[in-house]
Amino acid sequence: AKEQGGARFRRFTQAMNDDVTRRLAIEKSIRKGLENDEFVVFYQPRVDITTGQVTGMEALVRWARPDGTLVPPLEFIPVAEDTGLVVALGERVLRDACIQTRRWTDELGPLRIAVNISARQFQPDLLDRVQAALAESGLPPSQLELEITETTMMRDLPTSVAILERLAEQGISIAIDDFGTGHSSLYYLKNFPIDTIKIDRSFVRDVPGDEGDATIVSTIVTMGRNLSLNVVAEGVETDDQLDFLRAHGCREVQGYYYSKPLPADGFADWMRAALS
Ligand code: C2E
Ligand code: CA
Ligand code: CA
Ligand code: CA
């Protein structure tokens, strides 16, 4: 029995070492990727379905590896988050996205750029970093929205309120990302200076077929409208979803129905085609 336990223990520590080794390897290559500028920002349009106009876009990071592969964020953001590298990465995304949006403004209009902010970035010094990105790019604060999840906001409520109020004072918009998936969604609406709620894709996916989801989505839309918030439905892919959202007064949508996230050049081409 003792031997068996020992073997099991060795297997366990071996697995742990593998995991640690793997994470160290990922951490090292993220660091190198940052040095070599391998992270690129993709853009996905947000559309006002009452006017057909593009109101802005979300910045979504991709990792373009030297071997030509494009790594999706869910494969490296968690490690970047654990190691703290997400702060440097997020700062890069914020800066690039602001510069690009400013560059596009003359030709494509005053689009609003939405940038994801991870828990590690959501600290009091965020305001300085955001101001630096706005100053460097020349982008007006009214064209910047920060997407923050409920989980991030929940970690330290007094600090969250203080950070969000300072951002709001600067004229920067705040969106609650993945709305409805957290624990106290309504609390945030009452206590935080929120401009936008983004209904999580998990609720939108089975609309209109799933009655429960349909009720949840239409209720969020109505509540958001009554609170004068922008309500964005995420992950819209089909005509049926769009018809449902329109019928229930949802104003803005984002999803493959209009476009997948595109690299900067592709997004500009898509916009020109949409405008012509
Ligand atoms: P998110 O912020 O909820 O972003 C929306 C995700 O849904 C994106 O995945 C987008 O490509 C995907 N999506 C949009 N429309 C559709 C649709 O119609 N159908 C389907 N199936 N998917 C759709 P993506 O780009 O893989 O990003 C995944 C997550 O990674 C994001 O979720 C966000 O949490 C995180 N992320 C991405 N970029 C950044 C970043 O710059 N910083 C941080 N901290 N996190 C980021
Ligand atoms: Ca987001
Ligand atoms: Ca989301
Ligand atoms: Ca999400």
UniProtKB/TrEMBL annotation:
Residues 23-275 form the EAL domain. This is EAL domain-containing protein. It comes from Nitratidesulfovibrio liaohensis. The chain holds residues 451 to 726 of 737 of the full protein.
